[in-house]
Amino acid sequence: MFWIDIGVLLLLFFCLLLVCAFEFINGFHDTANAVAPVIYTNSLTPRKSVLLAAVMNFLWVVLWGIWVAMGIIHLLPLDMIADQPVAFGVCIVLSLLISAIIWNFWTWYLGIPASSSHTLIGSILGVSIAMWYLDPSVIPNWKKAEEVFKSLLLSPLIGFWLAFICMGILHKIVSRPEFFKRPGWLFNREPKSWIRYLLIGTSAFVSYAHGSNDGQKWVGLAMLILISLLPAIFAMNPQIDVKSLRGDVSHVESVFANVDETKLAPEDRVTFGEARDHVWQLGTLLTKDELSNKERIEARKHILKIQKDYKVMNEKQLALIPRAQADGSLTSAPADIASVSPQIANISNTIDYAPWWVIAMISISLGLGTMIGWKRIVVTIGEKIGKEKLNYAQATTWALITALTISSASKLGLPVSTTHILSSGIAGTISYEHGKWWLQGGTIKSILMAWVLTLPVTVVLSAIIFLILQKIFV
């Protein structure tokens, strides 16, 4: 068995290396989101700009939560993956990584600001569809996919109109004409100090927000690798004592046990019954002081099922009517499913986690990519979307709107495309200042083409790669 363990470790190292490579290339793409305003306004040198972006990207991923990461990996049928052999998990991970790296590197090489978010999500969905093709009982998480697609579709529109409105407000409230001038072409003149600091601050904010969303996606992918290859170790958070969950599980179990299921609609009765059964089975496992590796994997499966069923019931705001006693009185006051939300959240935290070294690994890869591959995309963003260089107010607006939109999405746990928000924000500022005819049609068409093609290309590519690898190794 020793050689198998060595083989798994080598696979683990190789897959994590690919994740770092992808995040490195992601840094190539998304550096423009932060450094273009300060480079093209001569507020900072390219080296200082990129270093600032790298540090701010790193800070968010290290300091804050992983809501977006968990949203990404839940696009896959995780409960089904946990039952499969290691080779199956390897096929999934390699399919995601290879298809995403191919598309991301190709669009970067062409200087097209394509979305790394679209790339990863398309790859995940492609693998899910391929798994569905092999086994019709494994249904892709269409509801989560719909939620993700809506956020990806709406965020660029929000970015455009917020930037358009913001430019109008700035023209009303800022009376200093130098703010609406374009950067000096001669001698690389710096802007006035107050403009320079404003641009540096908003650019740093973009990088900070970028880490909150894009950085988290690859944390989620790294966790998928760890769970697929070493489920016994990473199935549950090793920092959490399973005995601490007993109170939460017991509370949910007692609430569910007292519900009059006859008062539920037929479809709700099925969902509720499944959730109640998994809570009971999880509680049975947790009566032990220590769980074996097999039992930890089993506990993870129960928690995933509870999460899934709870989300369905919570979205319906399911009312929980208690059983009636012999005299007709209720055993307790009616409640809704949200009454057990704190307990469900505590239980979920045992599987929705990432070790600190995973977060640091992803952050460093993103930062290094940011420091090396900035120039191609920055040129497109700074000079090719509009027919002339952007003024200081436009640069400030697009950076601020991009950062605010991404931060808001991250708080909601929704993945969005930094590239598309940024590009649409620039288009919004140009449209306000000069009208839509001032946009460069060729660049806009390239960006839109990448936006349209990314999902179908990565879906098909990852599905084909998965089916080939699965045929060879599983």
Q: What is the radius of gyration computed over CA atoms, rounded to a whole number of angstroms? A: 25 Å
Unreliable residue runs:
none
Q: Look at the structure and give the mean pLDDT.
A: 80
Number of helical runs? 19
- The side-by-side strand order for the widest beta sheet comes to 1-2
Task: Describe the main β-sheet briefly.
Answer: 2 strands, antiparallel
Structural class of the helices, strands and pairings?
A: mainly alpha
What does this structure look like?
The chain is mainly α and 474 residues long. The protein folds into 2 domains: 2-233 and 355-473, no CATH class; 240-348, no CATH class. The chain is 72% helix and 1% strand. The protein has 19 helices and 2 strands. It has helices at residues 2-30, 32-40, 46-63, 67-73, 78-81, 86-109, 116-134, 142-173, 193-229, 231-234, 246-257, 266-285, 293-315, 341-348, 356-372, 375-384, 392-411, 418-434, 441-473; strands at residues 319-320, 335-336. The chain has a two-stranded antiparallel sheet. Helix 1 (2-30) crosses helix 15 (356-372) and helix 3 packs antiparallel against helix 15 (356-372). The protein is globular, with a radius of gyration of 25 Å. The two termini are 19 Å apart.
